[in-house]
Amino acid sequence: MKNKKLLSTVLALALCLSALAGCNAQQGGNSQSESSGSSQSGTQTEYSDAKQIVLSDDGITVDGKTVAAGESESGVTVGSEIIYYHDMDNYESGNEYGDGDDEDKHTEAEAAAHTLVTITEAGIYRVSGTLSKGQLAVDLGEDAVTDPTAVVTLVLDGADITCEIAPAVIFYNVYECSDSTVDTKGVVDTSAAGANVVVADGSENHIKGSYVAKIYKDNSEQKKLAKYDAAFYSKRTININGGAEGTGKLYIEAENEGLDSELHLTINGGNIYINSQDDGINTNEDGISVTTVNGGYLFVNGGLGEEGDGIDSNGYITINGGTVLAVANGKAGDGGIDADMDITINGGVVTAFGSRNDSVSENSAQNCMELTFNGSRTAAQGLAVKDADGNTVIEAACEREFSSVTYSSPALEQNVDYTVYVDGVQQAYTAVSVDAAPGMGFGGGFEGREPVLINDPIVTELPDGFEEWIKSDDNIPDNIREWLEDISRALTGQPIETPRPVEPKLETEGSTSGDGQMSTNAQQSVSDGNKPPEKPDSTGTNGENSANSHAASSTFVLTGVRTSFIGVANA
Fold this sequence. Notes:
The chain is 5% helix and 35% strand. It is built from three helices and 42 strands. The strands form six sheets. It has a 20-stranded mixed sheet that branches. A ten-stranded mixed sheet has the order 5-6-7-9-11-16-19-22-25-28, with no helix packed on it. Strands 1, 32, 33, 35, 36 and 41 form a six-stranded antiparallel sheet that branches. A hairpin with a 2-residue loop joins strand 3 and strand 4 (65-67). The two termini are 35 Å apart.
């Protein structure tokens, strides 16, 4: 998804998060950190009535019985062909086969080297063992989509599955609990979904998968027959849960996208780590899909290829709890969090890095800090945000390139001074708050420590009405107007005729302390989740000027659920 909303902030600070190689960070306040776990098999006390599937390159067993190719046992079939993109351009009929390129094609010999294990009956299945070339599929038949009893739960308990020609795990036909035509506005109950995954306590699970480029039906209309973009894929709404203790781990490594659902995805628990060449997570029903995070620990390292978001929804993103660390490609205009509709944060600890994060909805129940850097950050510089008492709210170091960070935590408070430090140096900036409308690639692995914490947006083009607003709004101080005009020239490719230093002082509604620090009466930046920023109104939410400005300010204050700033660093 490349539909990017303009964001209303530019902040020139040097910040850095952990890359594929990993990073470390600490955060202040109420947070849920990664659950501890081991590589040992999970306990058998959870789902003790589950059917036992043990994977092996030497053979598959179900409840201790070996299932040979072409045979079935207790609702599990071994054999048949994995759906993959064949090495062909046209069907025998002459009709075009698909829209894939040579790099998407696979030979019959490649496919024959893989083992397909398919679950065909509803129930609970505990999966363990290793399949170095194969796929675990769930398919209860087309009638299952409307059958509320067609529910399958996969308990991943030390499963290691690699597929080089298609997704390693895929849900085809199970009960679909939701209507793909209904806009739920980002709130959806998926508890009845037919696709369910449990990451068993104490277990470590590895899913390494490829994808299937779009294959057409054998006719002249070129209607889609198959297209599965992710290493872990579901055609239906899917839930992912942790065990009772929340200590299980699921690693997903993807040649293309990581974890996808064609409708809704709900994450309730577990520790999930995703490395992907493209989007880390994608839910792809336009204007409808909801990606919900209610708990657990989620680390998404997306866009390791030429492009890709961290968490990408063609509909909504709703985060109610847990810890979310999402990283996007830092060069391609991608966001750690990216949604066509609203992004709502009601709880948990959320940190998203990208080159352009999408803005968070004003309807969020939890405070959110959005900062944008005037240029990408590539060095592993440390960033810290502290409150007025010197308490660290967030601290991080990172090795991937980014320009935008979004941070939300219960620790963030309104009307509290926050100061930003880069490599221990306090940053001063000019801030203006505005009301805005709203090949298999398996190398590298998950060695080292995964990233942690910070936050947000960037402006790479002017919103509609920006230049007219600068000229016509009498409430903009002259020195700020000149600065905004320079930004306008820079973004439209015009030369800046006269360099203008940042003014050391500006009389505004903010209060200036003796050391030059300033508290900013920033107005909440409002987003409708689907439009670029509109021209700000001259009046703020409480009758205050919505262009309250501060030069050489080194502190800022959150005054709304979502507060954004335009700024230029002095360091």
